[in-house]
Design a protein that fits this description.
The complex is a heterodimer of chains A (about 240) and B (about 325). The radius of gyration of chain A is 18 Å and the shape is globular. Chain A is α/β, with parallel strands linked by helices and about 240 residues long. Chain A is built from seven helices and eleven strands. Chain A has helices at about 60-65, 90-95, 115-125, 130-140, 160-170, 190-205, 215-220, and strands at about 5, 20-30, 35-45, 50, 75-80, 80-85, 100, 175-180, 205-210, 225-230, 230-235. The two termini of chain B are about 60 Å apart. Chain B is of the alpha+beta class and about 325 residues long. Chain B is rod-shaped. Chain B is built from ten helices and four strands; from the N terminus they run ααβαβαβαβααααα. The chains are: A alpha/beta (about 240), B alpha+beta (about 325). The interface of A and B includes residues 97, 111, 121 and 129 of A.
């Protein structure tokens, strides 16, 4: 595994086909100190990487940058070939729909069924339920929730919620999948099962970024590692 | 069980599940029947009820003041003062004849001694013998229309009736009108204040209810919903919620108006009641009160919906 410190190779790894590119990106909240400094990285199509680092290193902030809910305060960030600082809000929405996110706390809506939660990204696009019903049912079966589609999130187990959140992130067939501690709330066997799901998804062409603290989990896969420490990024290819 | 049977069974189960999914109504994106939503409905119902009651009271006062003015303007009084050596009763009868012949006059009646005694009773007591007192004779003249009678011409015609003078109540009517206008103005001002209080209560209660839905806004945003879509969902939800609360309040106020009408109007049939209704009206709210209540319900609903829309936009702007 080759080590590369992002600050030492500006623009390193950037290619024309990259889905996401950071060049000397920095971010600060208000007038505070920079929480992310001089980040330079690229996310290639069909790539698989772990994002790791100690608590407070800025992983969640970096994920928000990937997902375009934050914009850098300096440097260049381009997503799907578009420079983020020049995007208007409606363009942000269309780019964001090409990225799926699995949150650590699942972010499922408790008053909707599992089926409705998974179909939510398509519903907000104005699609009729009859048009996407078969896709949602098939995806729920794929993640092992075929028998739980009418259940409400409060009665699902942690693993079932996690799989429902993953299914929701995948229903729009995103080009990039971001997962924030997707195995943080499940036991090791289920964690392995979820990871196999991500690997399978990656094999089908989706670029996957998994934020995790779990060294053992990362050691099971020969994948690129993005290590954040005190706001700086080190990349192990 | 053979593989074919198993496959058939799976197909049947799948078909049933798909049919069940297709048949049910999807849940609303904004949760229904929550504690905060029900509390907001109650607040809206109470504030709408108070606003409708105030509107009803203002229309009552307005109607009563209009009736006072019409009554006063449709009557004048001719007074025949007693003069030594003159038969006051004969002069009063002559004045009444002249008044009846005047165009625009419906009728003129000389008040009998008993009626005069009743008018003076509060000041002079019972058992009054008017023959011993120099009391003027009063003639009540009823007019078809206040503007149809030339009062100066009538006063000139009464010139040769000794001791006669015309009182057209102008000063009294002017003061009454001022008082009525002030009362209506005060009522409208109170209605305005109640309405401002309603607006503020609804706005703050809506913002409170919205706060409990912050997670829904956030999730919708994160799954790719545009601001306009989220705002429309919340606006529709809060419009229905506001309409329900507003209509409950308006219906309760309309019921109270109708109840007051049924209970109080029959009790005003006696002479005492007639005097009260002459001053305060008939306690019957007219169509303006009922339609106004309906208008308040719709206005409150629209206001609730707009507040939720603005709150969503503000929340989304803050979260970016």
């Amino acid at each position: 595994m080759a080590l590369r410190h992002s600050a030492t190779k500006p623009g390193g790894g950037g290619e024309a086909g990259d889905l996401i590119r950071f060049e000397n990106v920095g971010l600060r909240y208000g007038m505070g100190p920079e929480v992310l400094r001089d980040l330079t990285l690229n996310i290639a199509p069909g790539s698989f990487q772990f994002l790791t680092g100690p608590s407070g290193a800025g992983k969640t902030t970096l994920i928000r940058l990937f997902f375009l809910t934050l914009r850098p305060t300096r440097g260049l960030l381009s997503v799907f070939g578009r420079e983020v600082s020049s995007l208007v809000k409606s363009e942000l929405f269309s780019l964001r729909r090409r990225i799926g996110v699995v949150f650590q706390d699942f972010r499922l809506l408790d008053h909707l069924t599992t089926f409705e939660n998974v179909g939510l990204p398509l519903r907000v696009l104005g699609r009729e339920e009859s048009a996407y019903r078969a896709d949602v049912v098939e995806l729920l079966r794929w993640v092992g929730l075929g028998d739980r589609m009418h259940a409400m999130p409060p009665i699902l187990s942690g693993g079932e919620k996690q799989r429902a959140a993953i299914a929701r992130a995948l229903i729009t067939r995103p080009e990039v999948l971001l997962a924030d501690e997707p195995t943080g709330n499940v036991d090791p066997p289920l964690a392995s099962r979820l990871m196999r799901l991500f690997v399978e998804l990656n094999r089908l062409g989706t670029s996957v970024i998994i934020a995790t603290h779990d060294i053992n989990l990362m050691n099971q896969f020969d994948a690129r590692r993005l290590v954040l420490e005190e706001g700086r990024l080190t990349i192990y290819d | 069980m053979t593989d074919a049977d198993l496959a058939h069974r799976i197909q049947v189960v799948t078909h049933r599940r798909q049919s069940r999914l297709a048949a049910r109504r999807p849940n609303q994106l904004v949760p229904e029947n929550t504690v905060s939503g029900n509390a907001l409905t109650i607040v809206i119902a109470i504030m709408s009820f108070l606003a409708c009651l105030t509107l009803g009271a203002v229309t009552l006062v307005h109607d009563a003041s209009r009736d006072w003015q019409l009554d006063v303007q449709r009557e004048i009084t001719i007074q025949v003062r007693p003069i030594d050596g003159v038969d006051t009763a004969a002069e009063a009868a002559r004045a009444a004849d002249i008044a009846r012949r005047t165009p625009g006059v419906i009728g003129a009646d000389v008040l009998e001694d008993a009626e005069n005694a009743r008018l003076l009773e509060p000041w002079l007591g019972n058992g009054l013998d008017l023959a011993d007192l120099p009391i003027p004779r009063l003639i009540v003249v009823r007019l078809a229309d206040a503007n149809a009678v030339d009062l100066d011409d009538l006063a000139a015609s009464l010139g040769d009736v000794r001791g006669a003078s015309v009182d057209d109540h102008r000063v009294w009517a002017g003061r009454l009108q001022s008082m009525a206008n002030a009362t209506v103005f005060s009522g409208v001002a109170i209605l305005g204040l109640v309405f401002v209080a309603t607006v503020l209560s609804v706005v703050f209660a809506t913002r409170g209810a919205m706060a409990s839905n912050a997670n829904v806004v956030s999730v919708l945003h994160l799954v790719g919903a545009e601001d306009g879509f989220i705002a429309r969902e919340f606006q529709r939800h809060f419009l229905l919620l506001g309409l329900r609360g507003g209509l409950i309040g308006a219906a309760a106020a309309a019921f109270l108006f109708a109840l007051l009408g049924f209970v109080l109007i029959p009790s005003m049939a006696g002479s005492e009641g007639e005097r009260v209704s002459a001053l305060f009206g008939r306690f019957a709210v007219g169509p303006i009160g009922y339609f106004g209540a309906l208008g308040i319900a719709f206005l409150v609903a629209v206001m609730t919906a707009l507040t939720s829309r603005l709150t969503v936009y503000r929340y989304l702007a803050d979260s970016e």
